[in-house]
Amino acid sequence: MMRSTGIRLCLCILAALLAFPLAVSAFDGTVTFGAVAPMSGTNIMVGDFVRNGILLAQKHINERGGILGKELKIVFEDEVDNLQASVNAMTKIINYPEVVAFFGSTYSANCIAASPVVLQKKITMFAGGSSANIPKEKNPYVWQVRMTDDQSGLLLAKAATQVIGMKNPAVLYVAESFGTGLMTQTVSALKGLGIDVPEKNLYAHNPDEKQFSPILTQIINSDADGLIGISHQMPAAVITMQATAAGIDIPLLGSSSFASVVCRETAKEASDGWMGVADWTPDVTTPEGKAFSEAYREEYKGKPDSDMPAVTAYDSLMLFAEACKIANTTTDREAINNALYKIKAYKGAMSTYTYNDNHCFSTSQFLTINENQRAVLKEVVYTREP
Amino acid sequence: MLKIANLHAYYGSIEALKGIDIEIAPGVVTCLIGSNGAGKTTLLKAISGMIRRTGSIVFDERNELIGESPTRIARRSIVHVPEGRHIFPGLSVEENLEVGTIAWHGFFGRKPYETEKRSVFDLFPRLEERRGQLGWSLSGGEQQMLAIGRALMARPKLLMLDEPSMGLAPVIVSDLFRKIVEINKLGIPILLVEQNARLALEISDFAYVLDQGRVRIEGKAKDLRTDPRVQEAYLGRFAGKTQPN
Amino acid sequence: MQGLNILLQPNVFMQLTINGVAMGMIYALMAMGLILLIRAIGVMNFAQGELLMLGAFITWGLTYQVKLPFVLMIPAAMLCFAFVGVVFMFVAYWPLRTASYPTATVISTMGAAMVIREIATITWGSLPLVSAPLVKGVVRVGSLRLQYQYLLTIAIGAVLIFLVFVLFEKLYAGRIMQAAAQDKYAAELLGIPTVLTTAATYIIVVTLASVGGYMIAPVFLVNVTLGTLQLRAFAGVVTGGFGSVKGAIVGSLFIGLVESYSSTFTTTYKDAVVFLVLIVVLLFRPQGLFGERVADKA
Asked: Does A have 3 or more CB contacts under 8 Å with B?
């Protein structure tokens, strides 16, 4: 009869509707990844980048079916802007029973401070900092995705000689542990490449220096055929501005600060022409890098463009997913950590990652050139075979 | 020209003048004598507006000075030469004199003051000799002359001198007092506060004796010279000293 | 660092000299203000650098936030400087002028420095701001490259200093202000409105420092650390002779040159070299290069 057919039809539709969520839920459980980021305090800009990177990675992973069929969940903690708060945040994450691995602080000092707890709880941490002191802890559970600062020196030297062709560079560096360290690495790397940098071509500057004209005058009037700048973002901006004002016309290569957003947006046209060895630029043209950059732009409507902390967090989460696949588990933390030793030539957005004894995966950085206030990729420079 | 009635003056909460009634007649030299702390300097400060005072001080029969600021009172050409001279040490003699004209000259005015300067130099030739010297390098007597000269530049209608003889050698003092008489003869009434009672009485027309914030004795100066109360209390100490003229 | 013998190259010597004189002018503008306040009010102003910094921020704000054209910006800035001068006087000096501890006024200026820094940070943020130079670029004289902004700094600084000098040494109003500074009591008895003269002095001091900030902002970027330049101004005042305006100016130019030339053999110990020179000058001439002494006789 008509009526009973109608009722049967409704029941079928109802059953289908009820079954639908179950059918669509392709996931067979969850796996949880933790992350700390500065969500309050003076570094919230960095925190936004980290969050965006993690959430974008989560989206991409879950769209492709999760990790080994399990839905990826994220737990965030606020590391604010001081050591104590950061360590507290990381400790909290570590103590969530469901967290299998996590993304640690973007600041190296915080990572080093949290290292003992990480070791005690035997949980994998992807450190967001780049200090060469992190591997010195020799903590088997701590891993770095970014290139360590001591390796950047080798890349600066390679870029200066092999790409630009400097034979007698002057080096202007900030006189504190980062700058002096990187300068020493760069000079010894140059020596290894056959270029001796005499004492008179080395110019130190105080971290709060604003008066670079006397130094630039000397550089311009010496026989230096190139300038290598090693500094933080603000002095980099001032250096580029004063160098342009002084009419400098030798090739200019800087550490990553010279390609940073702060430097480019403060110095504007003055920063053009500077080459830099940088972790990341949103105008990268490698396939994986470009894919990430564009996905980020689309997801976050280009406000602002992706920066280093975002891609570091993204690649960390991707490496975690890869390790789970290699170990074929999402619950055995020890196995997942051991799987990281097997990472080889994994193509991430920021670099191609391969295991290294110092637990630093990155094999390359980007040689960029500032054009129209954008840091454009010139080529990828490698420290070792990926 | 100056009528002071029931004047009380205070340093903070301490009452230094306890009801003073004084009349300064026009054209003459009036002196205030008395021992230290009697309130002589205080009275000058009360007139020039530098301390808190109540009562009535009427200038020229219609201007009540109580409630007016020192700047306002100075504009009325009532000039107070303070004890200790207070010349401007970093300015030259000539510049010190120039600055004295501020009350009528105005900050950006261009009015000439050559006549006034001329009469000061005529009165004090020593100042003319030292016209380019900085104030701090003058001797005590020269500084006193400069302080008075500076006051004269202001075209005073009443010149108030506080202890001009203080710290000066007797020879200089007598010379100074001769000049004071000359100034009065030019038509400028003078209110003179002095420790040296004998000298003060000798050149004054009228005198008031202050003691502990009140007027004790008043009258014509020549009468007070021979008043036994005055002689005993104030003149004995200065017996046998200099005389003007 | 190339070493002192690079100074033998005329190009380098010329450029370092211009650089040194330009910086010296900035220090001189601050130093002149310091001396004026010391002589007028007896106050050693530890907020002098912050006044320079505030001047840089105010001119930046008027140019880039209020978007005034240059011809309007200058008088507006002058009004702001006058306002700052009066406020500074009434807040940092006036309530303490009769304090029993003379150091109270000095400490108050230190506090004022902190307050000014924080107000600047709250109003304009902590990122440095960019300000365009008056005239961009360099002028080429032979193989010399001299930046216009440095040359203008020297010119404008010299004009301002000259004007203030004329005011105090030649004009009647300047002498009135000096009198009020030297003996407040006598000045008031003569009818000098000492509140006005003190305020005028503060306004002049703030304007001098602020113009310095405006001139140097395009080179150094506008940010709160500009205040540290005041250390050189102090060095200039002491080298030239404490209390002497001429000395403060010459001393500051001297310090600027020393700083510039010393970059040929050290850049991290720049401060140490400047103060070493200061100590040497004082050892041989304790009253400074132009030391005057104004004493009270009698």
From this structure: no
